[in-house]
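Memo to structure team: turn this sequence into structure tokens by end of day. - J.P.
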Amino acid sequence: MDAFDFSRLGVFIVEDNNYVRETLENLLRHFRFGRIAVASNGEEAIDYMKTLGSASSIIAPDIVISDLVMTPINGLLFLRWMRTAKESSNRMIPYIMLSGAADGAYVNSARDLGATEFLAKPFSAASVYKFLVKVIEAPRQFVTTTKYFGPDRRRQKQDPPGKERRLKDEEDVTIVYSAEKVVKPKQPTDVWYFRLPNSLKEKAGGGGFKGTAEIPLDLLEEAEQQLGRAALDFTTWALDYLKKLSDLCDEALETDGERGKHFQEINLLALELRGQGGTFGYPLITTFGKMLYDTTLEGCREDDNAVGIVKSHIDAMRAVLREKIAGDGGKIGRELLASLQKAIESQEVDDKAN
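Reply from structure team:
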């Protein structure tokens, strides 16, 4: 089998976490991408993409990898802009959404706005590489209606028996073979399929490939080693986030009124910890981060006992980092999880008693 030549391609990374953005950038350099551009949020990303429409010498990227949860403009809004705005330099660009919040609602929202793929955090070098190969090797046709423009959301060529999802037969749609005709149909019943040459595969030197492009094992090994080196700095980053969580707890306890803002920030920090732990060798941080994220979603309790539950999660994650508990932690990991669950149950019992 043959491998793609990423040196001929450019990728645009949009990620608000400096640590993760730099890690992902270094990972793509190991994959030998020819051009890598970065932005720290959707607003910066839109400004950057707008410059490509002017008399700029900057070469437009071939692939976008964007985080989902960012401020002031998140990955969903940036995706919508890429797919619909007249200023967008390439409305059909492969767009890989990256997020620790790989829950159904987020995945569906990304799909309905035209995401090409959804890559969940924590990620590995292999998973990133496989998604890149996927969007190059097997691009889905683009579909446009009065309400949607993006990759075909049906991944199966034929629907399962008894589950007909295609509202129109192919003879009832308009087949378009040019990207120059990307306009919205006028009638709600109109459906257009865009079937274009796979120029990205040609650009990556895979036009003559037969079968599936290979993933070079030596390249993956180097990339995994790079992630391992990045993991050495993870403890410092994670402890900083845990301190921010602790400070938010203290502020919440000193607040007599509404604590919604505090818990919203706690939830966002939990999402970051949920997304990064497994990437850098601490899956227990991902487990505890997800538990904290689920506990602090919108509409959660905001009383003192709820703050106590947050503190219990902080203590558990600090123990993981202090003891350098990698993997599932074995017996120690199970004991930590049981201790955290007991602390949560204790807080909930106290709450009922009061």
